Amino acid sequence: MESEILEFGMDDKELESHPTIYRPDFLVGKVAVISGGGSGIGRAAAWLFARLGARVVICGRKLEKLKSVAASLKKVGLEAQPIVCNIRDDESIEAMFSKVENLFGGCDILVNSAGGQYPQPAIDFTIKGWNAVIETNLTGTWLMMQTAARYWRKSSRPGSIVNIVTVVERGQPGIAHSCAARAGVIALSKTVAIEWAPDKIRVNCIGPGPIDTEGQRVYTEETRNRSARSNPMMRFGDSFDIAEAIIFLAAESGKFITGENLIIDGGSQLWGEFWVGEKPEYFK
User: Fold this and answer.
1) Rounded to an integer, what distance in angstroms lies between the CA atom of residue 192 and that of residue 196?
2) Who contacts 146 (Cβ-Cβ below 8 Å, separation ≥6)?
3) Phi, psi for 59 (deg, rounded to 5)
4) pTM (2 decimals)?
């Protein structure tokens, strides 16, 4: 299966060869489950986890995307196990974790990268659109977290969760539904980081700012150019910036970190404007 040629984001060659601060065997013996592993940040994380020796499970709704990533990894001697999973369906999640249990004896790390939204003024949201974003980004992430934690508690196995959210401290006009959902994930993570500490389960979040991934396709060129200049570095970050941070929080390097939300945005929250959709004339 030929890998996809990307107009945005990092291609397979870049993900294979991009320098990393971690030694090649850093994650040997670890099993990582990555939702949304077929594209974007999840795909980059899958590459880096595999490069560092972890056994990787990538899950998502579209098997073809997952198989494409797995095939690209296999070409260079790396592996990822693709498993179809709908994170909005608790039975689908349970079946996926059960399969991971049968294949690898369980997992050590869960990366919740699956999610989605569409740019639109909040006043125009339909209830169907609102529910779709909330159910995917908030409820779906929660179901993955809870199911993983139950497996870890049952087996007396420590675990680490990293949730990919967004920068919500000052809002992001154009994706209010996603901001509401991601803020919920952050609050959940901070809360269960305390509740689950006795079970040796750590829970953290990462809030990416303007990152160059395949997801940029849904935005206009004007919006993309404005996003790239929404931070004092005047550029996009790349998915590897986030992947390396995921490793830091998920692995032993982050063993005394829990309940944190690590912002990786090039300084966007300190400077500039960030409009996901079209910037209203009033603000120009």
Assistant:
1) 6
2) none
3) -130, 155
4) 0.94
Q: Where are the alpha helices (DSSP H) in the chain?
A: 12-17, 40-51, 63-75, 90-104, 127-134, 141-155, 176-195, 221-228, 239-250
DSSP character string of 245-273: HHHHHHSGGGTT--S-EEEESTTGGGSS-
Alpha-carbon gap, residue 160 to 253, rounded angstroms:
12
The structure tokens 């980081």 sit at 193
d(CA 167, CA 179): 8
Pairing of strands 159-164, 237-238: unpaired
Query: What's residue 7's pLDDT?
Result: 60
Structure tokens at 207: 């809030």
Could you tell me if 144 and 96 are in contact, meaning their C-beta atoms sit under 8 angstroms apart?
no
Q: Which two tokens stand for residue 108?
A: 């050590």
Residues 116-166 have pLDDT tens digits of 888 899 999 999 999 999 999 999 999 999 999 999 999 999 999 999 998
Q: Please identify which residue in the block is written with the tokens 């994170």.
A: 87
Among candidate residues 76, 72, 92, 139, the one with its CA nearest the CA of residue 112: 139
Spatial separation of the C-alpha atoms in residues 59 and 38, rounded to whole Å: 7
Q: Which domains are seen in the chain, by residue range? A: 27-276 (3.40.50.720)
